[in-house]
Design goal:
six-stranded parallel β-sheet; Rossmann fold; 21 helices; alpha/beta; single chain; seven-stranded parallel β-sheet; about 10% strand; 13 strands; 2 domains; about 45% helix
Length: about 525
């Protein structure tokens, strides 16, 4: 991966965006939102700190980078748990003892115990906890990567935690799990030690990017805000329920979500929840898309007084230009627009299409989105498709320009097991296309309305249960075959998106947030554009 030399590491920006696994290298709803934000505020300058898994998973940027992005730096978290290039010398070890690493690890253990207190999981994390965790891994006389990999103190601390593990859990797997999850923190510490210059920091998730924001807040004193689309901890729980790198046969006393999560999975979940709580604690303000997300954030330790709902917005002005004429026939085509990954439950879409095609033979199902993120899952989906003999009816189209796709569609659909407030649904409404979606995130609000006034507009499609191909098919068929029903749903979607979800409103609110946060910071750095 390469970045143009125009991106100056010493450049000062109005806003530094902290992005994990998203823009500008990965397409998706969050990436589209970030693109909207940057391009919608050409009078502001942005820098980007991108956190990815490993460098070989990313190529050139998936988006054209606007001129108001003055700096991008990339950091990769996988492999950050490998041995340091230079192991500590005897002199280093002697110095380490002089620096009293024992006391640092004792403080580290105390902080971990505070975060893991089951009675405090919904409580705000005290600011000194975030500050102390930051100082433990960043700056002079801190715990460093060599200490984690080669120090006796780290070895002893991990052995003490292993005592709480269930019988039968292999120590080696526990040891490497702890090292793997904590290794990236030293990558974050390096970023903080060379903090990109900005008037404020804005993370678009919690997780490692959110915790990086917390560290930068305590290092620089600059304002820090979080915007969450999907809830990071919830999505990681879903991901962890499907990963195959944690050997269940070594964990016979499985506990946790749906009794299917092993102890190591629970260890990861607790870790991500702790990162989330510290991110929330450090943020000056937290923004979310809808009330369901807000309630989950409060449950996860976000201070209620710092939470504000700002819904997504789409370019109604652009998309209304591609709406079909009122008397145009309804194309028997439904499209799932999104990444081909397990959280989108593509297999339920394919199974539903088998039923739909048996009743509406001319129906077409299009999968429109990138396939690079999880090739193994893509292969499983294509094998399922072939086993049903649906190759002529269901197409994998890869990434497509939506203004080219929308005029050909009768419906947009989602079979996801988790969503926030999907932009593709709103974009479809603006283009005059109803939606069938699983009951996840704010999808029910988008389709049926939120307030009494909103619900009076009518339904812009249908909501169905998760992982239910039959219910999905039963919802799709009437909308594809009954033009009156389809037009009523189309009209409701158009009215709703024009009234509540216009991009201009969202951009205006975020521009005001940026202006207010920067103006309130003391002392202020001089910067133009606001």
């Amino acid at each position: 991966m390469s970045i143009s030399p125009k991106y100056n590491p010493t450049a000062h920006a109005d806003v530094c965006l902290l992005l994990e696994g998203t823009y500008p290298y990965v397409r998706g709803g969050v990436s589209t939102w970030v693109k909207q934000l940057i391009e919608g505020m050409p009078n502001l300058t942005f820098s980007i700190v991108f956190l990815g898994a490993s460098a070989d998973e990313y190529d050139e940027p998936a988006y054209v980078i606007p001129d108001n992005v003055v700096h991008i730096e990339n950091h990769f978290l996988m492999g950050s748990d490998s041995d340091p290039e230079n192991k500590p010398s005897l002199k280093d070890k002697i110095f380490s003892r002089k620096a009293d690493k024992v006391a640092l690890f004792e403080r580290n253990s105390q902080l971990h115990d505070m975060l893991s207190d089951s009675e405090q999981q919904s409580a705000e994390v005290p600011g000194e906890v975030v500050r102390d965790f930051t100082s433990l891994v960043s700056g002079k006389d801190s715990i460093n990567r060599s200490d984690l990999f080669h120090g006796d103190e780290a070895w002893n601390a991990i052995r003490e935690k292993y005592v709480d593990a269930p019988p039968g859990l292999d120590f080696n797997h526990f040891f490497w799990t702890v090292r793997t999850m904590h290794g990236p923190l030293f990558t974050l510490a390096k970023i903080v030690d060379n903090a990109p210059s900005a008037n404020m920091y804005h993370s678009v998730s919690t997780g490692y990017a959110g915790y990086l924001g917390a560290m930068l807040k305590h290092k620089t004193g600059a304002p820090y805000i979080i915007s969450e689309h999907g809830i990071y901890t919830k999505e990681r729980e879903i991901d962890l329920a499907h990963v195959d790198w944690i050997p269940e046969e070594l964990d016979p006393f499985r506990v946790g979500l749906d009794d299917s999560m092993g102890y190591l999975r629970q260890t990861w979940i607790r870790f991500f929840r702790s990162l989330g709580r510290m991110s929330y604690s450090a943020a000056d303000h937290i923004y979310t898309l809808y009330n369901g997300n807000r309630l989950r954030q409060i449950e996860d330790g976000a201070p209620e007084s710092r939470l504000t709902i700002i819904p997504n917005g789409v370019s109604v002005k652009t998309l209304k230009q591609i709406r079909r004429a009122d008397d145009a026939p309804v194309p028997p085509v439904l499209a799932l627009i999104g990444r081909i990954v397990p959280i989108k439950d593509i297999k339920t879409f394919i199974r539903g299409m088998r039923i739909i095609c048996s009743k509406v033979p001319e129906a077409q199902g299009w999968l429109v989105g990138p396939e690079e993120e999880d090739p193994a899952y893509v292969a499983e989906c294509k094998a399922l498709l072939e086993s049903y003999g649906l190759q002529d009816s269901v197409k994998f189209l890869g990434f497509q320009k939506l203004t080219d796709i929308f005029p050909q569609l009768g419906l947009t659909v989602l079979t996801s097991v988790s969503e926030g407030q999907p932009l593709t649904t709103l974009e479809g409404f603006a283009a005059g296309i109803p939606c069938v979606s699983t009951d996840v995130g704010s999808c029910s609000e988008l389709i049926h309305g939120n307030t009494d006034e909103d619900r009076a507009i009518g339904s812009a499609g249908t909501i169905v249960p998760i992982a239910n191909p039959a219910a999905f098919a039963e919802a799709v068929i009437p909308l594809l075959t009954d033009e009156t029903k389809w037009r009523e749903a189309r009209d409701a979607g158009i009215t709703r998106v024009e009234k509540y979800y216009d991009e201009a409103d969202m951009l205006e609110r975020y521009h005001a947030i940026y202006k207010d946060q920067i103006a309130s910071a003391q002392p202020l750095k001089q910067a133009g554009g606001l």
